[in-house]
Design goal:
eight-stranded parallel barrel, alpha/beta, 450 residues
């Protein structure tokens, strides 16, 4: 049992969470710059103004990636760093930073996987309505063209958007993430539709303007249910629960994925959302439904399900004292088997785990090292399940641990540590954790050491 020889091992970050330099070298504001400065929006009133100072310490960080043995690095571009107003004027200093970062990665044998949008929406475009503006998908296509023109001579692996369930749902429905809105169902669905159009137009733009053949994916949350016990009935219940929409909520899969991979919204969702459906113009679904090379899935945990006596999926509650991370997320390695399996069966696209990891209570020990055996155990269990999916015929292409380094964890501020590398936020000192060295051994063996 092992992964294919071309399997890609990496780690991921996002621009606002690590770069810092939030208002330097011509960068424009993002909605996260705006919201992080609202008192109480982020725990401890933390902001990403300085974060990990990656903007100035990227060479050091790439050397740490090399020491860990990463084959690939999934980074995101800060849209307002390169287009301060969201459209129009290009900030050359911002593009120069990504030029240097890409070159540094390639010089050290690390393949860049670039995410175009990881939540830091330009503030100037937010003031024009953001994702509610009917021109928002064209704004995103213009931004994509700028990035393709500058980086596609060296970057061949792209993700359009990261976790629409979060930046639309958490950002526009319950208001806990930027831009902090609590809109009605109709507005949330319209923003979602415009965001999906933006995805499709970005794919079209990359296909047209990339300077070399490229691979393109999409990285939603893979909200996973798994069978309590592996009986045919429970497996079917878990599958149905993973892909069903039974109530008007943003926390589901198919509304964000069926249009992208199947070319239409799901029938059950159309019934549930019928009073609030967005304006869908002729050609919209064709624009959204662009051929993709892989499906990125961000999976951290799952929900156990069994088939109920009424032949409907029944959720299983967590047992007393269940294993959990410091974010209070359940530890459910099964999700990295059943998630890839279910999504591959439904959409037929090769799978890349674009995020998986755990927040832990890490600190530098007296011996100057960071010992995080819980994270090692977490990764070991989840990767074994992912390998089982590969053995059972799921076309898996890669795994990106979240996160390469401790960073600004959105509304949680600096209180949660997900990294393979410990960050001391007082002076920026980096320390590779035991999990980083353990991961290096997994990469070297292509997973055979699991």
């Amino acid at each position: 049992m092992s992964f294919n020889s071309n399997f890609v091992w990496g780690a991921a970050t996002a621009a606002y969470q690590i770069e810092g330099a939030a208002s330097e070298d011509g960068k424009g504001l993002s909605v996260w710059d705006m919201c992080a400065h609202i008192p109480g929006f982020v725990k401890g009133n933390h902001t990403g103004d300085h974060a990990c100072n990656h903007y100035y310490r990227y060479k050091e960080d790439v050397q740490l990636m090399k020491e860990i043995g990463l084959q690939a690095y999934r980074l995101s571009i800060s849209w307002p760093r390169v287009l301060p107003d969201g459209t129009g004027r290009i900030n050359e200093k911002g593009l120069d930073f990504y030029d240097r970062l890409i070159d540094e990665l390639l010089e050290n044998g690390i393949t860049p996987y670039v995410t175009l949008f990881h939540w830091d929406y330009p503030h100037e475009l937010f003031k024009k309505g953001g994702w509610l503006n009917p021109d928002s998908s064209d704004w995103f296509a213009e931004y994509t063209r700028v990035i393709a023109d500058r980086l596609s001579d060296r970057v061949t692996n792209w993700f359009t958007q990261n976790e629409p369930q979060c930046y639309i749902g958490l950002g526009h429905s319950n208001g806990t993430h930027a831009p902090g809105l609590k809109l009605g169902q109709a507005e949330v669905l319209q923003a979602t539709h415009n965001s999906l159009l933006a995805h499709g137009k970005a794919v079209q733009t990359l296909r047209q303007y990339s300077k070399q053949p490229c691979q393109i994916g999409y990285a939603p949350v893979g909200i996973t249910s798994f069978p309590e016990t592996e009986t045919p009935e429970n497996i079917e219940a878990a599958r149905r629960h993973t892909f069903s929409i039974t109530e008007p909520t943003f926390w589901m899969n198919t509304w964000y994925m069926d249009p992208v991979f199947l070319g239409h919204y799901p029938e059950d969702g159309l019934k549930v959302f019928e009073p609030w459906l967005p304006t869908i113009k002729p050609g919209d679904m064709e624009t959204i439904n662009q051929p993709l090379d892989f499906l990125g899935l961000n999976i951290y945990h799952g929900t156990p399900v069994k088939m109920g006596a009424d032949s409907k999926p029944q959720l299983i509650g967590n047992h007393d004292g269940y294993p959990q991370t410091s974010m209070r997320w359940t530890v459910t390695p099964e999700s990295l088997y059943w998630g890839p399996k279910f999504f591959y069966e439904r959409y037929g696209a090769p799978i890349v785990i674009t995020e998986n990891g755990m927040a832990n209570l890490d600190w530098v020990n007296l011996d100057k090292q960071v010992h995080d055996p819980q994270r090692i155990d977490y990764m070991h269990r989840y990767l074994q399940e992912y390998r089982r999916a590969a053995t059972d015929g799921v076309d898996v292409k890669g795994y990106f641990y979240w996160s390469f380094m401790d960073n600004f964890e959105w509304a949680e501020g600096y209180n949660e540590r997900f990294g393979l590398v410990h960050t001391d936020y007082r002076d920026g000192k980096r320390t590779i954790k035991d999990s980083g060295y353990w991961y290096r051994s997994v990469i070297q063996s292509n997973g055979e050491s699991l």
